[in-house]
Each structure stands twice: as C-alpha cells, then as structure tokens.
C-alpha cells in the first residue's frame, strides 16, 4: 500500500527545508531580522511536516502515529507564532506582534493538552492502492486550530496587502508585499481544505500539502526578490 499523504507531506518538507537553509545562509551573509524570522518560520514548518510524514514511512503503529501527530501540530503552532509576528515587525509594532504570538502559543498549549487528555489512536483508512492514518481528535480542537491558523493568515495577508498598496511606486516593497500576501493566501486556502473540514480525507490532505508547498515557494520568492534586489543595488533595507 502507498502512504500517499506521507509522500505528499515530504514535498512540503523538501520545499520548506530547502528554503529555510537558503534563508539562513542569506542571513549569515547579510544579517536581517526579516530574513531570520522567515528562516525560522520555514524551519519550524519543515520539522512539523517531517514529523507528520512518519505514518507509513517510519512507522505504521496507530498509537505511535497519533503521538507523532500531536508533536507535529505543536511545531505547526510554533511556526504560526513566528509567522504572525512577521507582519507586525514590518510595521514596527512589536508589542502587538508579541501579543499575537502569546495568543497563538496559548492556543497551541490548549490544543496539545486537549489532544493528550482525549488521546485516541489514529485510524487507518485503505483506499487501494493508498493507505492513510487519520488522526482522531475532538471537533472543537480541530476548529480552534483551523480558526487560529485562518486568523493568523488573514492578518498576515491584510497587512502585506496594505503595505503593497501604500507603496505602489516602490517596486521592491510592492512586489515583495504582494508576493507574500499571495503566498499566504494559498496557505490560507490549504488551511480551509485541511483544518476547517470536519473529517478530512486523504485526498483533501494531499491537496492541502501541494497547496502548502506552492504557497511557501511564492512567499519565499517575494522575500528573496527583495533581498537580492537590495544586495545588488546597495539600497537600504
């Protein structure tokens, strides 16, 4: 049987991991808070998807898979915490950014404790030639996670769209802002597909993984375009 969801997760692992490595290298060459934040966002995202890819690749035990799933979501919350801080750092509203980070972290703690308290083994689903281990947890935990991810995505999108519109005559800022907003919009759609559906199927999760990879690439294109243009032209960041 082919663990199709795990294999599609590996796409996100490869994309986000490669982008994180590239951004960390860029940061070493030209230290920048923006680059550092994005590098950590991609790194945490890569770890979460790597752990999520364990079913069918590193283990097929239902209990182990459920444990891996809980850990994976913990890293997802960590990556969202970094992501929600990024747009506020661009606005120099660091206090608001930290408040948003705290809210996400509290949500992550509630989710993790809830998953442990209501622990249930993952359920295997066969759709020949594919196999999928579906995580089982309370509907309110799924909804909370989807709502937090969606809210963080919408804040990110709104701020960068605003920055892009306000700086239309500045090509670098406009291009970067629109690319970041567009990339996060794709991630937002992925959140809707995966998290806000009551009982996600392996097809929805596979689709979500492909959308995630696309969104991550688009976002990285925006931030790297800005960084490369600034480095080439010697413009202030």
TrEMBL record:
Keywords: Membrane, Transmembrane, Transmembrane helix. Coiled coil: none annotated. The chain crosses the membrane at residues 6-25, 37-58, 64-86, 98-119, 139-161, 173-196, 202-223. It comes from the Bacteria. This is Histidine kinase N-terminal 7TM region domain-containing protein.
């Amino acid at each position: 049987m082919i663990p199709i969801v795990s294999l599609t997760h590996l796409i996100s692992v490869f994309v986000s991991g490669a982008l994180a490595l590239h951004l960390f290298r860029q940061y070493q060459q030209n230290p920048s808070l923006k680059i550092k934040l994005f590098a950590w966002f991609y790194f945490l995202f890569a770890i979460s998807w790597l752990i999520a890819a364990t079913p069918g690749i590193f283990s097929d035990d239902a209990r182990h898979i459920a444990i891996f799933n809980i850990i994976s979501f913990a890293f997802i919350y960590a990556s969202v915490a970094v992501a929600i801080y990024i747009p506020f750092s661009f606005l120099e509203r660091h206090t608001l950014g930290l408040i948003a980070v705290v809210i996400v972290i509290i949500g992550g703690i509630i989710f993790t404790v809830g998953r442990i308290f209501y622990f249930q083994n993952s359920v295997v689903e066969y759709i020949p030639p594919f196999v999928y281990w579906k995580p089982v947890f309370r509907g309110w935990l799924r909804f909370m996670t989807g709502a937090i991810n969606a809210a963080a995505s919408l804040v990110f999108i709104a701020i960068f769209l605003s920055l892009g519109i306000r700086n239309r005559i500045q090509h670098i800022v406009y291009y970067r802002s629109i690319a970041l907003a567009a990339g996060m919009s794709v991630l937002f759609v992925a959140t809707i597909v995966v998290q806000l559906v009551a009982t996600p199927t392996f097809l929805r999760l596979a689709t979500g993984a492909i959308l995630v990879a696309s969104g991550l690439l688009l976002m990285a294109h925006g931030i790297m375009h800005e960084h490369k243009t600034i480095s080439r032209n010697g413009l202030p960041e």
